[in-house]
Amino acid sequence: MKYAFLALPLLALTACEPAPEGEPVTRTRIDGKADPAPMATPSPEATQGGNMQVESACRSIIFEDTPLTHCLAVPSRHTIATDLSPPDGSPYRSLSAFSRNEDGKTIAFAMNAGMYDDEGNPIGYFVENSQRLQTLNTNEGSGNFHMDPNGVFYGSDGEWEVRTTADFLANVTERPQFGTQSGPMLVIDGKLHPEFSQDGESRLIRNGVGVDDRGRAHFVISNGPISFGKLARFFRDVLEVQNALYLDGNVSALWNPATERLDTGAPIGPILVVRKKDTPDD
Fold it and tell me: For the whole model, what pTM was predicted?
Protein backbone atom coordinates (compact mmCIF):
# COMPACT_ATOMS: atom_id res chain seq x y z
CA MET A 1 0.00 0.00 0.00
CA LYS A 2 1.40 3.36 -0.96
CA TYR A 3 -0.47 5.62 1.40
CA ALA A 4 -3.98 6.78 2.19
CA PHE A 5 -5.33 10.29 2.27
CA LEU A 6 -9.00 9.88 2.97
CA ALA A 7 -9.64 13.29 4.52
CA LEU A 8 -11.15 15.66 1.99
CA PRO A 9 -10.57 19.33 2.82
CA LEU A 10 -11.60 22.04 0.43
CA LEU A 11 -8.53 21.96 -1.78
CA ALA A 12 -7.43 24.26 -4.54
CA LEU A 13 -8.30 22.56 -7.85
CA THR A 14 -4.91 22.78 -9.48
CA ALA A 15 -6.02 21.05 -12.66
CA CYS A 16 -9.21 23.05 -13.14
CA GLU A 17 -9.43 25.92 -15.56
CA PRO A 18 -8.20 28.65 -15.55
CA ALA A 19 -4.90 26.93 -16.17
CA PRO A 20 -2.19 26.88 -13.52
CA GLU A 21 1.02 28.76 -13.98
CA GLY A 22 3.59 26.88 -16.03
CA GLU A 23 4.42 25.70 -19.50
CA PRO A 24 1.57 24.67 -21.81
CA VAL A 25 1.47 21.03 -22.82
CA THR A 26 3.89 20.27 -25.63
CA ARG A 27 3.22 17.49 -28.10
CA THR A 28 6.59 15.88 -28.50
CA ARG A 29 8.36 12.63 -29.22
CA ILE A 30 11.03 10.85 -27.25
CA ASP A 31 13.42 11.25 -30.16
CA GLY A 32 12.76 15.00 -30.31
CA LYS A 33 11.04 14.92 -33.71
CA ALA A 34 7.75 16.67 -34.30
CA ASP A 35 4.55 14.65 -34.08
CA PRO A 36 3.26 13.80 -37.56
CA ALA A 37 0.43 15.91 -38.89
CA PRO A 38 -2.93 14.46 -37.79
CA MET A 39 -4.70 12.37 -40.40
CA ALA A 40 -7.72 10.10 -40.44
CA THR A 41 -6.59 6.49 -40.16
CA PRO A 42 -8.22 3.24 -39.08
CA SER A 43 -7.73 2.21 -35.45
CA PRO A 44 -5.53 0.61 -34.38
CA GLU A 45 -2.80 1.76 -36.72
CA ALA A 46 0.71 0.36 -37.18
CA THR A 47 4.01 2.18 -37.32
CA GLN A 48 7.35 0.87 -38.54
CA GLY A 49 10.13 0.49 -35.99
CA GLY A 50 13.31 -1.00 -37.46
CA ASN A 51 12.39 -4.40 -38.90
CA MET A 52 9.42 -4.80 -36.62
CA GLN A 53 5.92 -3.42 -36.97
CA VAL A 54 4.70 -1.79 -33.75
CA GLU A 55 0.96 -1.56 -33.43
CA SER A 56 -0.56 1.59 -32.00
CA ALA A 57 -3.84 1.69 -30.08
CA CYS A 58 -4.22 5.35 -31.10
CA ARG A 59 -5.19 7.10 -34.32
CA SER A 60 -5.19 10.70 -35.43
CA ILE A 61 -8.43 12.11 -36.78
CA ILE A 62 -9.99 15.45 -37.74
CA PHE A 63 -13.40 16.31 -36.30
CA GLU A 64 -15.00 19.54 -37.51
CA ASP A 65 -11.56 21.00 -38.36
CA THR A 66 -10.11 20.10 -34.93
CA PRO A 67 -7.30 17.52 -34.75
CA LEU A 68 -7.83 14.78 -32.17
CA THR A 69 -6.06 11.64 -31.06
CA HIS A 70 -8.38 8.73 -30.31
CA CYS A 71 -7.01 5.77 -28.34
CA LEU A 72 -8.98 2.55 -27.96
CA ALA A 73 -8.72 0.06 -25.10
CA VAL A 74 -10.28 -3.35 -25.78
CA PRO A 75 -10.90 -5.75 -22.86
CA SER A 76 -9.59 -8.78 -24.75
CA ARG A 77 -6.32 -7.03 -25.52
CA HIS A 78 -5.75 -4.50 -22.74
CA THR A 79 -5.92 -3.87 -19.02
CA ILE A 80 -6.57 -0.48 -17.43
CA ALA A 81 -5.15 0.77 -14.14
CA THR A 82 -4.65 4.02 -12.28
CA ASP A 83 -1.24 5.13 -11.08
CA LEU A 84 -0.34 8.09 -8.92
CA SER A 85 3.22 7.58 -7.71
CA PRO A 86 6.04 5.07 -7.38
CA PRO A 87 5.88 2.88 -4.25
CA ASP A 88 6.41 4.99 -1.11
CA GLY A 89 7.01 8.06 -3.25
CA SER A 90 5.44 11.38 -4.20
CA PRO A 91 3.13 11.70 -7.22
CA TYR A 92 4.87 11.42 -10.59
CA ARG A 93 3.49 14.83 -11.75
CA SER A 94 4.42 14.03 -15.40
CA LEU A 95 4.19 11.27 -17.96
CA SER A 96 7.94 11.62 -18.47
CA ALA A 97 8.59 10.65 -14.85
CA PHE A 98 6.08 7.84 -15.08
CA SER A 99 7.67 6.51 -18.29
CA ARG A 100 11.06 6.19 -16.61
CA ASN A 101 9.59 3.55 -14.27
CA GLU A 102 7.93 1.55 -17.03
CA ASP A 103 8.83 -0.78 -19.89
CA GLY A 104 7.34 1.01 -22.88
CA LYS A 105 6.88 -2.29 -24.72
CA THR A 106 4.17 -3.27 -22.23
CA ILE A 107 2.29 0.05 -22.42
CA ALA A 108 -0.39 0.65 -25.05
CA PHE A 109 -0.77 4.27 -23.89
CA ALA A 110 -1.16 6.41 -20.78
CA MET A 111 -3.07 9.64 -20.14
CA ASN A 112 -3.65 12.05 -17.26
CA ALA A 113 -6.68 10.95 -15.28
CA GLY A 114 -8.56 13.76 -13.58
CA MET A 115 -8.18 16.74 -11.29
CA TYR A 116 -5.88 17.15 -8.34
CA ASP A 117 -4.63 19.42 -5.56
CA ASP A 118 -1.41 21.42 -5.24
CA GLU A 119 0.58 18.29 -4.36
CA GLY A 120 -0.74 16.27 -7.30
CA ASN A 121 -3.14 14.15 -5.22
CA PRO A 122 -6.65 13.48 -6.59
CA ILE A 123 -9.45 15.64 -5.23
CA GLY A 124 -12.10 13.02 -5.93
CA TYR A 125 -12.63 9.28 -5.67
CA PHE A 126 -9.47 7.40 -6.52
CA VAL A 127 -8.76 3.67 -6.37
CA GLU A 128 -5.46 2.08 -7.34
CA ASN A 129 -4.85 -1.68 -7.20
CA SER A 130 -8.16 -2.06 -5.30
CA GLN A 131 -6.92 0.35 -2.61
CA ARG A 132 -9.05 3.45 -2.07
CA LEU A 133 -6.73 6.42 -1.73
CA GLN A 134 -9.49 9.04 -1.81
CA THR A 135 -13.19 8.92 -1.00
CA LEU A 136 -16.00 9.98 -3.31
CA ASN A 137 -16.32 13.77 -3.44
CA THR A 138 -19.94 14.94 -3.31
CA ASN A 139 -19.18 18.50 -2.17
CA GLU A 140 -20.53 21.53 -3.96
CA GLY A 141 -18.05 24.03 -5.33
CA SER A 142 -16.83 25.99 -8.32
CA GLY A 143 -14.84 24.90 -11.32
CA ASN A 144 -15.18 22.10 -13.82
CA PHE A 145 -14.98 19.30 -11.26
CA HIS A 146 -18.14 20.55 -9.53
CA MET A 147 -20.13 21.21 -12.73
CA ASP A 148 -23.05 18.92 -11.90
CA PRO A 149 -23.09 16.14 -12.82
CA ASN A 150 -19.52 14.98 -12.55
CA GLY A 151 -18.66 11.29 -12.67
CA VAL A 152 -16.43 8.28 -12.15
CA PHE A 153 -14.53 6.07 -14.60
CA TYR A 154 -13.84 2.69 -13.01
CA GLY A 155 -13.55 -1.02 -13.63
CA SER A 156 -12.53 -4.51 -12.61
CA ASP A 157 -11.51 -7.61 -14.59
CA GLY A 158 -11.94 -5.98 -17.98
CA GLU A 159 -15.39 -4.53 -17.29
CA TRP A 160 -15.17 -0.74 -17.51
CA GLU A 161 -17.85 1.89 -16.92
CA VAL A 162 -18.50 5.61 -16.70
CA ARG A 163 -21.26 6.71 -14.32
CA THR A 164 -22.37 9.99 -12.85
CA THR A 165 -21.26 10.45 -9.24
CA ALA A 166 -24.85 10.12 -8.01
CA ASP A 167 -25.34 6.90 -9.99
CA PHE A 168 -22.04 5.51 -8.73
CA LEU A 169 -22.90 6.35 -5.11
CA ALA A 170 -26.34 4.74 -5.39
CA ASN A 171 -25.47 1.59 -7.31
CA VAL A 172 -21.81 0.60 -6.96
CA THR A 173 -21.33 -1.36 -3.75
CA GLU A 174 -18.08 -3.23 -4.42
CA ARG A 175 -14.75 -1.46 -4.65
CA PRO A 176 -13.36 -1.62 -8.20
CA GLN A 177 -9.77 -2.44 -9.11
CA PHE A 178 -9.33 1.09 -10.41
CA GLY A 179 -11.37 4.28 -10.32
CA THR A 180 -11.00 8.00 -10.83
CA GLN A 181 -13.53 10.80 -10.31
CA SER A 182 -13.51 13.90 -12.48
CA GLY A 183 -15.92 16.35 -14.00
CA PRO A 184 -17.98 17.40 -15.68
CA MET A 185 -19.61 14.49 -17.46
CA LEU A 186 -19.49 15.05 -21.21
CA VAL A 187 -22.27 12.68 -22.23
CA ILE A 188 -24.98 11.35 -19.91
CA ASP A 189 -27.21 8.52 -21.19
CA GLY A 190 -26.67 9.67 -24.76
CA LYS A 191 -27.29 13.36 -24.07
CA LEU A 192 -24.79 16.20 -23.84
CA HIS A 193 -24.18 17.80 -20.45
CA PRO A 194 -27.04 20.31 -19.98
CA GLU A 195 -24.68 23.27 -19.50
CA PHE A 196 -22.80 22.77 -22.77
CA SER A 197 -23.50 24.80 -25.88
CA GLN A 198 -22.93 23.40 -29.36
CA ASP A 199 -19.44 24.89 -29.62
CA GLY A 200 -18.70 27.29 -26.76
CA GLU A 201 -16.09 30.03 -26.59
CA SER A 202 -13.93 28.28 -23.95
CA ARG A 203 -11.44 26.29 -26.01
CA LEU A 204 -8.41 24.46 -24.64
CA ILE A 205 -6.49 21.24 -25.13
CA ARG A 206 -8.84 18.75 -23.44
CA ASN A 207 -9.18 15.02 -22.87
CA GLY A 208 -11.88 12.59 -21.82
CA VAL A 209 -12.94 8.95 -21.69
CA GLY A 210 -16.07 7.00 -22.52
CA VAL A 211 -17.17 3.36 -22.73
CA ASP A 212 -19.23 2.05 -25.62
CA ASP A 213 -21.91 -0.66 -25.71
CA ARG A 214 -19.25 -3.28 -26.54
CA GLY A 215 -17.35 -2.48 -23.33
CA ARG A 216 -14.45 -0.74 -25.09
CA ALA A 217 -12.95 2.36 -23.50
CA HIS A 218 -12.40 5.34 -25.81
CA PHE A 219 -9.79 7.88 -24.73
CA VAL A 220 -9.68 11.18 -26.64
CA ILE A 221 -7.25 14.07 -26.41
CA SER A 222 -7.43 17.13 -28.63
CA ASN A 223 -4.33 18.26 -30.50
CA GLY A 224 -5.71 21.77 -30.72
CA PRO A 225 -8.09 23.90 -28.65
CA ILE A 226 -11.58 22.43 -28.42
CA SER A 227 -14.82 23.37 -26.67
CA PHE A 228 -16.67 21.17 -24.22
CA GLY A 229 -19.58 20.89 -26.64
CA LYS A 230 -17.51 19.75 -29.59
CA LEU A 231 -15.58 17.18 -27.54
CA ALA A 232 -18.83 15.83 -26.11
CA ARG A 233 -20.40 15.61 -29.58
CA PHE A 234 -17.41 13.62 -30.85
CA PHE A 235 -17.97 11.06 -28.11
CA ARG A 236 -21.72 10.91 -28.74
CA ASP A 237 -21.99 11.24 -32.52
CA VAL A 238 -18.79 9.64 -33.82
CA LEU A 239 -17.83 7.14 -31.12
CA GLU A 240 -21.47 6.47 -30.19
CA VAL A 241 -20.66 6.50 -26.49
CA GLN A 242 -23.62 6.79 -24.12
CA ASN A 243 -21.59 8.06 -21.15
CA ALA A 244 -18.32 9.99 -21.30
CA LEU A 245 -16.30 11.83 -18.67
CA TYR A 246 -14.09 14.89 -18.97
CA LEU A 247 -10.63 14.23 -17.54
CA ASP A 248 -8.97 17.66 -17.71
CA GLY A 249 -8.03 20.67 -19.81
CA ASN A 250 -4.87 22.56 -20.75
CA VAL A 251 -2.62 20.11 -18.87
CA SER A 252 -3.97 17.14 -20.85
CA ALA A 253 -1.20 14.79 -21.95
CA LEU A 254 -0.63 11.45 -23.70
CA TRP A 255 2.16 8.89 -23.81
CA ASN A 256 1.99 6.57 -26.80
CA PRO A 257 5.17 4.48 -26.98
CA ALA A 258 4.26 3.03 -30.40
CA THR A 259 4.59 6.47 -32.03
CA GLU A 260 7.14 7.81 -29.53
CA ARG A 261 4.76 10.56 -28.46
CA LEU A 262 5.42 11.78 -24.92
CA ASP A 263 3.63 15.00 -24.00
CA THR A 264 5.25 17.38 -21.52
CA GLY A 265 4.11 20.56 -19.82
CA ALA A 266 2.47 21.70 -16.60
CA PRO A 267 2.40 19.17 -13.71
CA ILE A 268 -0.35 16.58 -13.81
CA GLY A 269 -1.89 14.37 -11.12
CA PRO A 270 -3.31 10.84 -11.42
CA ILE A 271 -2.55 8.73 -14.50
CA LEU A 272 -4.63 6.16 -16.36
CA VAL A 273 -2.46 3.38 -17.78
CA VAL A 274 -3.56 1.03 -20.56
CA ARG A 275 -1.29 -2.02 -20.74
CA LYS A 276 -1.07 -4.73 -23.35
CA LYS A 277 -2.21 -8.16 -22.30
CA ASP A 278 0.15 -11.08 -22.78
CA THR A 279 -1.14 -13.02 -25.77
CA PRO A 280 0.07 -16.33 -27.20
CA ASP A 281 2.31 -16.18 -30.28
CA ASP A 282 0.45 -16.69 -33.54
Answer: 0.84
